[in-house]
């Protein structure tokens, strides 16, 4: 074989065929997914239109869906369980305009989205799932940790509506900040007295989950990143690079409450990275002091005349109270 063809050219052939094959398989999967979504939407439309046409058909009432499930399963086999029939009907009701159904998400994504009654929440997770190419598992994780509610709770009415319709747009440093960050995946019991080094260790062990919580664009650089000033060593707990904002993101972990000295320390880290670590094309670094607690008034004064790239956020080891967040957002939406 080696005598007949140039090995380099042969490897190029292998690469080209593999690329074509993967692209073709991806298109085939997308086509199947698009067909499935369109089919389920059409079935849902037929069910709803049947239900709405006249008093005579309304007599079927609650018996219609179980009867459909039974008869369609006998005729067509799998795919028409009662739960699936209900989801198809719900699918059409939630998306009466077929054009709003994105083929970039699969049916399993929509099953999770349909569990959300609030249309703003559903719209956000749909758009964000498309933007960040979430798997079904990732989508469930973000819904479970109330990502939309956390992001929307600090916004006004117009910003909440924009967030729901477009997803989270990353244009400025504060667009990547969350408060609080949810670290339930670390599985640290609330009364447990852990150290900052243990907190960092658990985050590294669950880095994939932490990156998902941080959001789109983060790439891990290192832990305990050493800074040397005046023959003294200092260490940044976690260092990331944000591909969209083109800047380093420094995170300092605090087991308890964030203090003014933590703000000063992070400000020093930011100065060092901007002057010593940044290369051509890098934007000024972002610093996040991530603490279990923070005193907003103290932090406000500690941040006076400090870099606008520095943020202090809280983390929680448990899931947030969704109803409290929803109530806060409803108040914002009803505010004239």
UniProtKB/TrEMBL annotation:
Residue ranges annotated for the YhcG PDDEXK nuclease domain, each copy included: 175-326
Pfam families attached to this UniProt entry: DUF1016_N, YhcG_C
GO molecular function: nucleic acid binding
YhcG N-terminal domain span: 17-150
Domain of life: Bacteria
InterPro entries given in the database record: PD-DEXK-like_domain, tRNA_endonuc-like_dom_sf, YhcG_C, YhcG_N
Protein name: DUF1016 domain-containing protein
Protein's organism: Mucilaginibacter psychrotolerans
Source species taxonomy: Bacteria, Pseudomonadati, Bacteroidota, Sphingobacteriia, Sphingobacteriales
